[in-house]
Request: fold
Amino acid sequence: MIEHAEQDPGIAGKEELASANDVMLAIVRTSKGLRMYLPNNPVLISFVEELNAKMAAHLERFGQFRLDVEPFALRYKGCDIYQSHDPKESIACRIHADGIRGLLFDHGMESRELMTLLGIVGFERPTSDDDIVTQLWERNLPHITYLLEEDFLEAQLEEEPSAGGGQQEAITSIYQSLAEQPPPAPRMIPKHLLMLSAEEVKWLRKVRQVEARHNALDDVINILSAILAGVKDQELFKDFVDIMANLTANMFLAGELQHALRLVRFMDQLLKIGSSTAPYQRQLLAEALTGILSDATLHVLQEALDSTESISHEELKELLHIFGLPSLGAICELLGRVEKLKMRKVIIEALVELGRENPAVFAPFLSDPRWYLVRNVVLVLSLLGSPVALDMIIALISHREPRIRREVLGFLERSSDMKAKSYIVKFLRDDSSALRIKALQLLARERHTFALKPILALTGAEDFSGKEFAEKKAIYEALGEIGSDGMIPVFRDMLLKRHWFQKAAAKETATLAVAGLMKMHSGAALRLLEEARSQKRAVEVMALLDRAVSAMTAAKERAAG
Reply:
């Protein structure tokens, strides 16, 4: 049932205006969705269903949905419900450019009509000669009426000067008259007036397409670059360098990364032309480049790297190389902010190349309070792999943040330098149980004999009994892996020693000894297990020894076969 408001029908109430805003938001969302998704995409389908529901609800309650079209805005009963000043994105701009000054959606409109309309007005002008009016006329949308500019002008001429009222009343009157008759056919230019040849038409169409793609900003950059390359006066050169630096920063802030990259490239090329660029000019250019990466530009750049494809990996690396060591702090800051793994990798590669000659430039960042930034710098130093980088990393073994210590341990694991391997032993006393176990596993896997004595000392430490069982097991597995048959006497004492009235202690001791023996894979280890099994033990210990003997025997047979 359509409600009729008591107030002036040309004025929208709060509820009606809120409903119109909801419909307009759904129209914009669906229009963008049509450009982004395929017709069967669930996201687009949900947008279409939501728009149909909101439009149907509005028409059911208020009777009509009418839009007055201005160059960059759409109005509903005198109130702006849509604005966009970007000609490439603005729906209002596209409709207005083809002479349409109003759209009226009537009760009973089908989803097909609405999607057809959005398919026509929601995209940039096609390469064909058919404008929006022609396409709407050809599609025959019975519940969508459009008002052309000439219709509005004719209606104004028909009004008496003393009639009073405003433009809004005139538009309302036109809509009422249009509702009583079908939309007129678009006015076509008589063929006998077309004096251009086919080749001329083709040429004009190409010129129009080139002009549509033309960006005035390119002209500004070209003019500014030409002035900067030719000016010789010192003060004037400084002024234009400042202008170019400000323009570059603004391009970053506006998300125009390609234009920003172009400007940065030009300044870098001008800086490196030693024969034609004076020393004071090179200094001004270098200072300008250093000042571009501010906190604001870094924020925009980080968001672009994480959420768009507006700059390629190669372009990002080129950009960072141009900024170079003078902007090292900003580049490291960017590394700490970027979340996309591939882009972080590009930044790390650039930093490795920038710091190859002098890794000490990264020293200030190792004391940064942000652990993730320090971790990334450690990764850069580990890729440099020089003795200076090693010394800088080793200094972080006792860092308060366990995630940084984990990165240091990872570096020691990857390093082929035996000096670096010796520092793994320091992690045997780390505050983190996980890092202590990781260090034990690394030492055991690579069978570093220098670690045997420190690991064996752990078994006699006062805090050994309080360690978790997983760590105790890792200790004895490392002893078996590194010490091999040399550890047989230790494991013999553990297996054959009687623990009177200490059933839990006997089971744990036997389990740890068996864990170490299983890592030895030797005949001596198998014989010790069989000897221990021959003695009378608790049921659980005997089962443990049986499983160990069976497993070691099977492994020995597989190795022999």
Notes: Residues 1-8, 160-165, 186-194 have pLDDT under 50 and may be disordered. The beta strands are 64-70, 73-76, 79-83, 100-106, 144-148. The longest strand covers residues 64-70.
